[in-house]
Amino acid sequence: MRFYGIPSEERVLEIVDAIKDGNWVYEENSYREVMDAQVVKEKLREIIKQVREWKENNRHIPAGTALIFVHEPSDPKVFKIYDLSSLGCSPSLSPPRWKIYREELSGHISP
What span, in angstroms and rounded, lies between the C-alpha atoms of 26 and 41? Predict the structure, then answer.
């Protein structure tokens, strides 16, 4: 799967608003929960708010830094959201803090 980094939280909100239906899986560390589309939209809005706060409170992070990645912004089925610990000099990203994806993709989402 190819993911697109979305540097603007406003754009991510537009993508979230495009979610229409389906069951979604929310993962944070070892916690996993299945949610309907409306609940997952609210959860994503909470996470987006937290990402905005990180950027506002950590002035050394450029405003355009992408911490939220989505597979196919026009038809979102998978979101991966990284936290500030992912930033650094490593040649690869650490695992995402949150993964949110359509339930039918369970078992097909890599870290």
Answer: 11
Put simply, whether the predicted model's pTM sits higher than 0.85 gets the answer yes
> pLDDT (tens digit, 9 = 90+) per residue, 10-50?
999 999 999 999 999 999 988 999 999 999 999 999 999 99
> Is 102:51 a contact under the CB 8 Å cutoff?
no
Tokens 């070892």, located at residue: 30
* Residue with token string 């697109």: 4
The answer to whether 35 touches 110, Cβ cutoff 8 Å, is no
